[in-house]
Amino acid sequence: MLSPRLHNFLDQQHSSYSTLTHDRTVTAHETASAAHVSRQLFAKTVMLKVDGTLAMMVMPAAYRVDLTRLSRALGGRIAELAEENEFKDAFPDCETGAMPPFGNLYGMPVFVDSRLAGQAEIAFNAGTHTDAVRMPYKEFERLAQPELLWLAHVM
């Protein structure tokens, strides 16, 4: 089941997407595998604090965020990983760690690794550890309006 906020938003925007149900997973790698999606196409959401304010970094599951590079890309702003207890209440309609990459639905900025922008489509968590959404990348970009950055590196 999609997060109600995400489901309503996608429907109101007449978005083109499909849902994928999979076995319960926790990590982006596990989810990509369970959903039969390449780790290059599966977009994981990493929660950050940028100058103390929550933000989302969205990148291929095969990569990890480089906080030094992110800080430079943001003009020297302080970027650090957010602790679970700092963000879990920001997503009341989602299981912790399964939030979709739509910060605009939760009042926070979204940064996306530009390698995702080169993909025809992406998949991502839909608010639970058993559901994902697959959609054209351009549709995601239209809806989430992320800031494109080149940040992550191979794990």
Automatic annotation (TrEMBL):
Q: Which UniProt keywords apply?
A: Aminoacyl-tRNA synthetase, Ligase
Keyword Glycoprotein assigned to the entry: answer is: no
Q: Where is the YbaK/aminoacyl-tRNA synthetase-associated domain?
A: 23-143
Protease listed as a keyword: no
Q: Which GO terms describe its molecular function?
A: aminoacyl-tRNA deacylase activity; aminoacyl-tRNA ligase activity
Q: Which domain of life is it from?
A: Bacteria
> Which Gene3D superfamilies does the protein's record reference?
YbaK/aminoacyl-tRNA synthetase-associated domain
User: Mind telling me what this protein is named?
Assistant: YbaK/prolyl-tRNA synthetase associated protein
